[in-house]
Amino acid sequence: MGISGRQGELCESLEDALVREIREELGITIRVKDEFFRIEHDYPTKSVRLHFFNFAIAEGEPQPLDVADLRWVEPRELDNFQFPPADAELIAKLRFGMQAAPTKAKEEH
Question: For 14-107, which CATH class?
Fold first, then answer.
């Protein structure tokens, strides 16, 4: 899950920001495991660095509190949705089982 919307609070770790954002947007408590993917993407007017983490739901049932839509889908169904260009490599990796997938985005290790 990536952290979208506002940036993390001052002195807040990425993991703490993710816990807070998930609580605010989905109404659940999570336990962050590990960062499994990171990417930098250049848009015409800005660059972004995205961090994606594995996590487990510790408490609650996800609800669309501060998001437009919420649903569980199979990786093969991801092509039915629109994602920002910065997410292209992540979506490809999810569809192909986190193996190397063709893309033009640059990955940071």
Answer: alpha beta
